[in-house]
Amino acid sequence: MSYFMPPIAPVRNEEGRMVTPATLLPFCEISVEQVFQMITCNEDLRLLTGQVRNAPDMRTAKATLLPYVTPCGTFTRRNSQCFLSPSRLIVIDVDHLDSYEEAAGMRRTLFDDPFLRPVLTYISPSGRGVKAFVPTGTSFPADEIRNITESIHRAMQYVEMAYTPTTDITARATAKGVDGSGKDLARACFLSHDPEALFRNS
């Protein structure tokens, strides 16, 4: 997958002038094993995650401070038209949980799910969500992009049915459940410190 330095969006001053452009080009390629090591052991990421969780505007802080990856594969630029190669992984986000403790429980629940069998699960930057890196299926081995998108749809539908307490679409923005924006091939996934992240070696 591709690894990007922050910010994910332009940083503007009080007058609305851009002071730092968005990072659209990857810094390097990174493996899921390296992501796990960074999440669990990197001191800089630990400090940045703390800043985000204590910020009055967590969304802006996250976009400004945290590095991110494209779990579906590598890209020359963060755009679905610039896809290079697949990682054989997709990301599923479960958001808007009630507490860090509930997120910790969901981290284990998703990791142990026999259908998903994630390679990695960790608590998201907000402290109230979980990100799961799930292996893709092989329904369309001759069409990598279709294989990825179909895997995303299947995994999202499964998690919604198995773990989402509401099906009210109008409440989806604030209700517990799967973040539907993860359907984008070039979906960015923020990294956040989680010393108890779960990783599957095989």
Quick structural summary:
This protein has 202 residues and is of the alpha+beta class.
Structure description:
It comes from Bacteroides acidifaciens. By secondary structure, the protein is of the alpha+beta class. The protein has one domain (2-11, 19-195). 31% of the residues lie in helices and 21% in strands. It contains five helices and 13 strands. The strands form four sheets. Strands 11-8-10-9-13 form a five-stranded antiparallel beta sheet. Strands 4-1-5-12 form a four-stranded antiparallel beta sheet, with no helix packed on it. A hairpin with a 7-residue loop joins β6 (73-75) and β7 (83-86). The longest helix has 20 residues, at 144-163. The radius of gyration is 16 Å and the shape is globular. The chain starts with a strand and ends with a strand.
